[in-house]
Design brief:
Structural class: alpha/beta
Number of domains: 1
Radius of gyration: 22 Å
Oligomer: single chain
Shape: globular
Largest sheet: 8 strands, mixed
Strand content: 5-15%
Order of helices and strands: EHEEHHHEEHHEHHHEHEEHHEHEEEHEE
């Protein structure tokens, strides 16, 4: 191992965990992700602690649960007082570069109301240096296309319409109008290689983000035809969407309100109306987008290998959140279903190779990424961080204080997309839920709606809510108490490890999780 330490953090968008070949997705071809899995540890029980994109990335890059960072939805600002990975890396001499986006709205107290960042969905998180930004408004990508000589249509987003003037918007087996060598995936890879070739001999950190397999669900040729719909897994859902809607008022709201237009440019109609054939085609396209990313990651991996940097570089591969893909008649990342929250995680630690190629089943969460990277680089893990370093697990150790539950949250208030509090007659601050689950049970607690409880052994699809079952009353109470204890234990603690004393201010933090 050479003296310098580099980190490549790859963050894809909307890639769910069961679409990873190492975790059983044999219908997919991802030789470069397979290569990474063989050179590191793949985590089989990893979740994002929040959805959608903005809250998920806030948790990923601050190490804080949603209950603590409070950037609860896209467009909601992230408090400037929070430490994040970029700021922490600067403290130890790194210039953290970022390609892609973080969907971060700045703290309005640090700027003025006319700041253009308040007119967009999100911008880059403070602390990172953009070297290939996608936000705001994707100007960097569209400018790159124009610079390459590509003639942009009057409405730039039309590049993601199906090829051919006779094409009907919606689920399609046609390719997108943009060629693969000019796709957004190619753009991000070009920016990554440009950065890596120019960084010189100094240690580097690169957040390499990819927009895919995020919608619109349309792939450039040849990826649009790489997979056959009949080879895709069938959706997991009840016989009708109305039967699903009976499970819970929030699910009923989404099943009635999600449209296809957010996932296919120009499309109309309800997402719940998609039949199985359309869902299989959508999944084939989704897989094509995944393989496009994989091919491009191969270009980055090959460069690191050819320049002797592969063995100096920690690589972390993950996603911000998952995607329903028609399961439970839903599209997007919403609610409380596993498909929205379970995401890939692979960690290649060049210092610990004895477990390369193994699958780790311990419960891990997106808040664990920040402490993992900082520990490996010798940085200080901020006191407020809710996660734990994964380095012991990668090395094969079993810390006694590892978590025994997965935790995640969702705030469904109306700030941009929909009006659930109006439909459900809830105060805005009551539009929230939290989940605790282990191998056997899953409990969903709502601030102002009925709870849900599932037996994952007997009902892995989570169709039967047992929260009102008398036979399960004690279990429901037990898991509700677990959820309450989790929230109490992880209350914000930036300064709770310090105290005033006769000799001056004392730092009482002995170790992560110390309760003294």
């Amino acid at each position: 191992m050479a003296g310098r330490r580099n980190v490549l953090l790859v963050v894809v968008d909307q890639w769910r965990a069961d679409f990873v070949p190492a975790l059983g997705a044999g219908f997919l071809r991802t030789p470069n992700l397979d290569r990474l899995c063989a050179a590191g540890v793949t985590f089989a029980n990893h979740v994002t602690t929040a959805v959608p994109c903005g809250p998920a990335r806030a948790s990923l890059l601050t190490g804080l649960y949603l209950m603590n960072h409070r950037a609860v939805q896209n467009t909601v600002p992230l408090d400037a007082r929070h430490m994040n990975l970029g700021k922490a890396l600067r403290r130890i001499g790194y210039d953290p570069a970022l390609i892609g986006y973080t969907t971060t709205t700045p703290d309005p107290r640090t700027t003025g109301p006319r700041d253009p960042r308040f007119t967009y969905l999100g911008d880059l998180m403070d602390g990172f240096r953009g070297v290939g930004a996608f936000e705001p408004t994707m100007d960097g990508y569209f400018g790159w296309l124009a610079h390459q000589g590509y003639k942009l249509p009057a409405r730039r987003e039309d590049i993601w319409l199906p090829e051919g003037m006779d094409a009907v918007p919606g689920v399609t087996d046609r390719p997108s109008r943009i060629p693969a060598d000019m796709s957004d995936t190619a753009y991000f890879t070009d920016r990554a290689l440009t950065y890596l070739k120019g960084v010189g001999d100094k240690p580097w950190f690169l957040h390499l983000g990819y927009y895919r397999p995020h919608p619109p669900f349309i792939a450039p040729a040849p990826y649009h035809a790489m997979y056959r719909p009949e080879d895709m897994p069938a959706p997991m859902r009840a016989e009708t969407w109305q039967a699903e809607a009976e499970q819970h008022p929030l699910l009923d709201f989404y099943l009635r309100g999600i449209s296809q237009g957010s996932f296919f440019h120009g499309a109309g109609g309800a997402a719940s109306a998609l039949d199985e054939a359309a869902i299989r085609q959508m999944r084939a396209t989704y897989c094509g987008l995944i393989s496009e990313i994989d091919d491009n990651l191969g270009r980055v991996f090959d460069y690191l290998d050819a320049t002797g940097q592969w063995d100096d570089t920690m690589i972390v591969f993950t996603s911000d959140h998952g995607e329903q893909l028609g399961d439970h008649y839903l599209l997007g990342k919403i609610g409380y279903h596993d498909e929205s929250f379970r995401i890939p995680l692979v960690v290649k630690n060049p210092d610990a190779t004895q477990r390369d190629g193994t699958i780790e089943t311990a419960f891990t969460e997106s808040v664990d990424i920040v402490p993992t990277i900082l520990e490996w680089l010798g940085g200080e893990i901020p006191a407020a961080v809710d996660g734990r370093s994964l380095l012991p697990l990668v090395a094969g150790e079993r810390p006694e204080d590892r978590r025994d539950l997965l935790h995640y949250e969702y705030d469904f208030r109306d700030v941009f997309y929909s009006q659930p509090e109006t439909a459900l007659r809830l105060p805005m601050d009551s539009c929230s839920l939290c989940v605790v689950q282990d191998e056997r049970y899953k409990y969903v607690h709502f601030a102002a709606l009925p709870p849900l409880f599932f037996d994952l052994r007997d009902d892995p699809g989570q169709f039967r809510n047992l929260a009102e079952s008398p036979e399960h009353a004690s279990l429901v109470m037990h898991y509700a108490q677990k959820a309450l204890s989790w929230r109490l234990t992880h209350a914000e603690r930036t300064l709770t490890g310090f105290r005033a004393a006769p000799g001056g201010l004392e730092d009482r933090r002995i170790s992560k999780g110390d309760t003294a």
